[in-house]
Design a protein that fits this description.
The protein has helices spanning 10-18, 29-34, 86-100, 119-127, 146-155, 187-193, 196-208, 220-234, 241-254, 299-313, 335-342, 361-373; strands at 4-7, 39-46, 52-62, 69-73, 103-108, 113-118, 141-142, 159-160, 176-181, 211-215, 259-266, 269-279, 282-290, 318-323, 347-351, 355-358. By secondary structure, the chain is of the alpha+beta class. It has two domains: 4-109 and 354-373, Aminopeptidase (3-Layer(aba) Sandwich); 114-141 and 175-351, 3-Layer(aba) Sandwich (Aminopeptidase). The strands form two sheets. It has a nine-stranded mixed β-sheet. A seven-stranded mixed β-sheet has the order 1-2-3-4-5-16-8, sandwiched between helices. Strand 4, helix 3 and strand 5 (103-108) form a beta-alpha-beta unit. Helix 7 (196-208) crosses helix 10. The longest helix is centred in the first third of the chain and has 15 residues, at 86-100. The chain starts with a strand and ends with a helix. 40% of the residues are buried. Mean pLDDT is 93; it is low at 165-170.
Length: 374
């Protein structure tokens, strides 16, 4: 018997999320408040007894002059992805509901891990002359069942979303991320897992007098100034300050400690800043920013270590440094960021990526063509 999909209240959605150890920060009700250009709706999956067994945040983007929508579930929905009747019981009623809401296309990001590479494996891959992408290298582990999920989706008419932009930083959410497992580890163990350069830099920052503090909403402009400098240096289009102010207000209104801001000070100047998000046992380093000045005092390492220590104190099972490039080309400008994250001693993680289902093939094709030409 297929499940029943219908809108649920924010409280119902939050109660469901609270019962799970890990749910993406993009699958909680407040994330819809961060995206004013989208219409947000919390969906619930109900079984025959009326129990809520799945949930998802869907963002509906209107098409100008048409009463039709692109439906997007970033890093979701939160359903039983390993269920043998995944397509018929879980996804079919979702598609039927969204089609009834006027959606012409559905995009989702199954939170299904495919492969993992240890820090040592990634480091060796970067040094290997014949490895051009992470996928060229034998992973440390495969996740059982991930390929079955992909096969079921393809047979049902779902298609992997086209990738564009920077590897790992395309429109949509990153397929490759870097995570540091915390579950069952002491903070000393996490510290021992850092590579020698990281430990040396943390000590150097401490000796130089770098102080890392938590900030408030009033410190967002200081973060934003560094963020603009970072955007110019790393060649990406920055979001407006209002976006981060909206994030702060929306996320922390839902939970008082959902979003944190950290700032690394040295001799009266803020040299680095970052935001940290928490949902259950999953903590994300979401946005980072730094100046090119006084890099020798290593504010970035000091700030990350403070965030990792605080995440550990919060009971995090994983500290997520988000997107990484999957290219291993020495000339690529994002390889330095990959090296920085590898120094934490964590692991590179590949997810199943985002998938599209065209409910109206003509409109879906027109949208794909438009996006390809942007």
């Amino acid at each position: 018997m297929s499940l029943r999909v219908q809108p649920i209240s924010r409280d119902e959605h939050l109660a469901f999320v609270a019962g799970r150890p890990s749910v993406s920060h993009m699958q909680i009700p407040s994330w819809g408040d961060v995206k004013p250009d989208w219409r947000a709706e919390s969906l619930g999956w109900f079984d025959g007894t009326g129990a809520l067994v799945g949930a998802g945040l869907v963002l509906l983007r209107p098409v100008p002059r048409l009463r039709r929508y692109l439906a997007y579930l970033p890093e979701g929905p939160v359903v039983d992805w390993q269920a043998p009747d995944l397509v018929e019981r879980w996804l079919a009623p979702m598609l039927a509901h969204l089609k009834g809401r006027g959606a012409f296309s559905v995009k989702m990001g199954p939170p299904v891990v495919v492969r993992r590479w240890s820090a040592a494996a990634v480091k060796a891959a970067i040094a290997a002359p014949d490895a051009h992408r992470l996928g060229d290298v034998e992973p440390t582990s495969y996740e059982q069942g991930a390929q079955d999920v992909a096969d079921r989706l393809r047979r049902a008419g779902w298609r992997p979303a086209a990738r564009g932009g920077e590897e790992g930083f395309a429109a949509g959410q990153p397929r490759h991320v870097f995570q540091v497992p915390f579950a069952g580890r002491s903070l000393d163990d996490v510290h021992s897992g850092l590579n020698q350069q990281w430990r040396r830099n943390i000590k150097k920052a401490e000796n130089a007098g770098v102080k890392v503090v938590r900030g408030g909403a009033e410190d967002l402009p200081a973060f934003y100034g560094l963020y603009l400098e970072t955007a110019e240096r790393d060649r990406f289009v920055p979001r407006p300050l209002s976006y981060f102010q909206r994030m702060w207000e929306a996320l922390n209104a839902e939970h008082p400690d959902r979003m944190r801001l950290y700032l690394a000070h040295h001799d009266g100047e803020v040299l680095a800043a970052a935001t940290m998000l928490t949902v259950g046992e999953h903590v994300w380093y979401s946005y980072g920013a730094s100046t090119g000045r006084r890099r020798e005092v290593q504010p970035g390492n000091a700030m990350q270590w403070r965030m990792m220590a605080d995440a550990h104190e919060l009971g995090a099972a994983v500290y997520d440094l988000r997107g990484i490039t999957d290219t291993l080309d020495e000339s690529h400008h994002l390889l330095g960021l990959l090296r920085f994250k590898v120094g934490t001693g964590g692991e590179a993680v590949e997810y199943l990526g985002e998938w599209d289902f065209p409910l109206n093939k003509l409109l879906h094709g027109a949208l794909s063509l438009y996006l390809a030409r942007r």
